[in-house]
Design brief:
Layout lengths: L7 E2 L15 H12 L4 E2 L4 E2 L11 E2 L6 H4 L1
Parallel strand pairs: 1-2, 3-4
Length: 72
């Protein structure tokens, strides 16, 4: 992978997703601001991939095809 620099935004837990795991405007704003800040790569936050897995409240979820649009 070729990156424009060596700055990474590491995976974190933001706790701002909706109960169904969909993304909020606040989450979009976080990633937009990080990207505008010039990082070379962003590793997204904790994302549950099972409808029965709740690691932490407010976690992003990608356990339904209906949620794919949020992550594009």
């Amino acid at each position: 992978m070729t990156l424009k620099n060596r700055f990474f935004r590491s995976a974190t837990w933001d706790g701002l997703a909706m109960p169904d795991g969909s993304l909020t405007d606040d989450l979009y704003a976080i990633y937009e601001n990080v990207a505008k800040g010039g990082v070379g790569a962003i590793v997204t936050a904790l994302t549950d991939v099972s409808p029965y897995d709740w690691a932490l409240e407010g976690s992003m979820r990608l356990c339904s095809d209906l949620l794919i649009i949020d992550y594009k």
